[in-house]
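User: I'm putting together a teaching handout on how multi-component assemblies are represented. Below are the sequence lines for each component of a complex, exactly as they appear in our records. Could you produce the 3D structure of the whole assembly as structure tokens, so the students can see both representations side by side? Please keep the chain order the same as the input.
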Amino acid sequence: MKTAYDLIVVGAGPAGSAAAMRAAATGLSVLLVEKRQEIGVPVRCGEATDIETTERFMPLDARWVVHPVESYAIYNAVGDCVVVPPSSPTIIVDRKVFDAALAQQAAQAGADVRVGTTAVSLLREGGNGSGAVTGARLKYMGQVYDVRARLVIAADGVESQVARWAGLKTIPPLADYYVGFQLMLTGLAGRLNPAHCEYHIGVDSIAPGGYVWVFPKGEDTANVGIVIAANQARSTSARTWLEQFVERRFPGAGRLSMVAGGIPVTGALKNMVTDGLMIVGDAAHQADPLTAGGISLGMLGAEMAVQVAVAALERGDVSARALRPYESRWQERFGRQHAALYAVRKILTRMSEADFNKLVALGARLPLDTMSHAELITQLLKAHPALLLEARTLITTGLLLK
Amino acid sequence: MFKRLRRESQPTTRLVINHDRCLSCGACVAVCPPDALFLHDLHLTVNHQTCTRCDRCPAMCPVHALALVPQETPHHENGL
Ligand SMILES: Cc1cc2nc3c(=O)[nH]c(=O)nc-3n(C[C@H](O)[C@H](O)[C@H](O)COP(=O)(O)OP(=O)(O)OC[C@H]3O[C@@H](n4cnc5c(N)ncnc54)[C@H](O)[C@@H]3O)c2cc1C
Ligand code: SF4
Ligand code: SF4
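Assistant: Of course. Below is the structure of the complete assembly, with chains in the same order as your input.
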């Protein structure tokens, strides 16, 4: 078995497979390791993602595309709803098959893929635990072995240990984490529109600091999940909140699967590199700070990281300084946008349920498809002057200027 | 006197994991400052030596499978 590579990628989620695929395609020798015995299992996801990013990495395939999303309906707690098109064309995927297909693409591009293989520590220059990263210690079937690499990319998801070993992990306050739980429900025929995703928002009666989603997977089945702010999850668990919602919205539905998870919603870490190491995807907190969607963003983060990595490897300099352009490119592309989304989440968290109900009720009566953004905002501010203050936050963060 | 000091510095609570509930999602691992939680082969364990009883992970668990309980609580009475 080969014991030296140009690049080791730890974790074969969307970010890791995307990184391995892109790097292998440039001719680098790449090892992709995944601790799970089967890639993509268990699924920890609502499975909605955008088409454009997906197609950058692989052609859409009926094996994992379940169906397109035509609209989102945003509901308040009393049943009014505003229907909007997705901000970019979106599909519901089968994550288990999707993740496996991406890893397969990486293998086809030339990466060695090893499942059931856990990274247990990093190899460091000088052997004192703080020098540049020079590879990883791996464990497969109880056997431990070392693999050297010129660079390591950590794509090991939310519980990222690799970033910790390298001293890059920062732990934000609980208010900046979502706690998530999801049920795949069946027996929903007649109670769903398959092309129509639902969001339900209500800080007191639906999901404190978060929201509930209904993402249909066909006529009869849907992912019904919740995220709540972790600092508001102490007295009642995410699971309990979701069970209450399901009891009201889909009484008697059958349950096909159960998913739990946590997502940092801060926007990407400031430090995503150190000597010989880069982090991508959930490990680098790259998920959307409002919706917590992280499939596409992790893949885009991986792509940016690899672009910088390839140039650095060509020059033979993988110091943190040489890798930093990855951080600045991320900030250029997503920094302002994510700061704005973060601000929106904070506003939604602060707004009372009664105010939010009013806002949606008003939106439901407005002809949204024929109104300009400016008209819409004027109408909303007229009805809800307190929003003026919040609007200023948004304007300063650049959302409305975009 | 020494005895008293020692007793006071001894932790009065301990973290318990309800394995019947835990879905091995790793959310708790992500928020543990001293890195005292480990997920190996979908099995969660806690290192009681390094756990500082900071009480972050119980809030992070989507299914409330974690709790800090008084040190002496017998397992069947810890409320989980
Ligand atoms: C309930 C829930 C619903 C969600 N819904 C959506 C949604 O609808 N749309 C969306 O875009 N996003 C959603 N997300 C977020 C999305 O799932 C993540 O952002 C995405 O999976 C991140 O990809 P990743 O590759 O960074 O990490 P992951 O997909 O978590 O992959 C990390 C991989 O690394 C492996 N690994 C970890 N440690 C090691 C190690 N030491 N050695 C080897 N391998 C290791 C893990 O086993 C895992 O396979 C949701 C999340 C949750 C919890
Ligand atoms: S109580 Fe704090 S230190 Fe102990 S395991 Fe939980 S998060 Fe870690
Ligand atoms: S957060 Fe809860 S369900 Fe997830 S691994 Fe920790 S104890 Fe288990």
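A couple of points students might notice: The two ends of chain A are 51 Å apart (CA to CA). DSSP finds eleven helices and 18 strands in chain A.
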